[in-house]
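Listing S7. Sequence submitted for prediction.
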Amino acid sequence: MEFVNRIVDIATRAVNSNAVINVCLLASFATLGVRSMNQQKTIEALQDEKESLTKSNKSIRKTLWDWKQQLYAEASADSAVVPLARLKAIYGEAPPPPRATLADTVTKDANSSGANKIIA
């Protein structure tokens, strides 16, 4: 029991001592300073990566734009595999061709003059 009382007495003196409090505050300040430096290095690395990605994206966009313009130029020729109007519809630069709706199909079927089969 005497050992426990001695530990409690040492802990009480340490809590009341300004030197111990100052050491704890200094250790906390140093820890926060190191953490702040690490975070600053991480932020700088991420900013460099962001700039690199931005340049890369601009380069890719320009390349895609050039390819698209080349594709349009090739499609405007008479012997194109895919016509220019179809390409513009694919890329959303022209309205798509009108689609037949169910109502249009029903109307066409009702008005058709084809032969009707009669099953008896």
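Caption to Listing S7: primary sequence and predicted structure tokens for the chain studied. The first helix runs from residue 2 to 16. The two ends are 111 Å apart (CA to CA).
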